[in-house]
Amino acid sequence: MTRELFREDSYLKSCEATITAVTEAGIETDQSVFYPHGGGQLGDMGTLITAAGDRLSISDTRKDRDTGQQYHVLDSTNALSQGDNVTLELDWPRRYRLMRFHSCLHMLCSLIDAPVTSGSIQVDRARLDFDLKDPIDKEPLTTALNELVTRNVSMTTRWITDAELDAQPELVRTMSVQPPRNAQGTIRLVEFEGVDLQPCGGTHVASTAEIGAVRIQKIEKKGKQNRRIIVVFDE
């Protein structure tokens, strides 16, 4: 299995790696700083640099649902072989925007007392859908969200066992997606001190101040009891 360095440090921008497999799906490596598409967050993009100095574009990062193996998607893998030593280099500005948006959605979760039915984190916007029938005023919500951002709330992570999570089902806010569980039977908790605590495998900023000013762009009614809240950076 690929060692997921991004779960240990979201700010790593590159790493050395060894190719463990070349498949039709993409390149598998022994470790990676690239986050694979999942949990509503887009897969990372960037560059694979060969030992000869050739730079190959990584257009996406995915994970096999059955095996859990992570792979990097390239236009061509003809020049690559199992055992090759390579450098993986993130498209950092893109990743950092995704990190800021993901952390922002955790702040949004803390303000809406309702289960999350779905979510999506794009480069230019992010959204959460809530199991909620009552309308929400976007202006007060924008104000409350920015107040949390400017409080500079710090983020920390820790790990709990499957059994510990099963004993605390209230930690899981999402109705349709379960938190990622690994082979060691542990789950990562992401905590913004005093504001939000929930299991999450995504990448986050170290404090809410890094999110920057945000704005609720739109609140839509999606179904009888579903409200979609779309957030953008107030740039």
What layout of secondary structure does this protein have?
Blueprint: E1 3-4, H1 5-8, E2 14-22, E3 27-29, E4 31-32, E5 46-49, E6 55-63, E7 70-74, E8 85-90, H2 92-111, E9 116-121, E10 126-130, H3 138-150, E11 155-161, H4 162-166, E12 186-192, E13 196-199, E14 214-221, E15 227-233
Helix pairs in contact: 2-3
Structural overview:
The protein has 235 residues and is an alpha+beta fold. The protein has 2 domains: 3-90, Elongation Factor Tu (Ef-tu), domain 3 (Beta Barrel); 95-233, 2-Layer Sandwich (Threonyl-tRNA Synthetase, Chain A, domain 2). It is 18% helix and 36% strand. The chain contains 4 helices and 15 strands. The protein has helices at residues 5-8, 92-111, 138-150, 162-166; strands at residues 3-4, 14-22, 27-29, 31-32, 46-49, 55-63, 70-74, 85-90, 116-121, 126-130, 155-161, 186-192, 196-199, 214-221, 227-233. The chain has a 6-stranded antiparallel beta sheet with strand order 3-2-8-5-6-7, with no helix packed on it. It has a 4-stranded antiparallel beta sheet with strand order 9-10-15-14, with helices on one face. Strands 11-12-13 form a 3-stranded antiparallel beta sheet. A hairpin with a 6-residue loop joins β6 (55-63) and β7. The radius of gyration is 19 Å and the shape is globular. The termini are far apart.
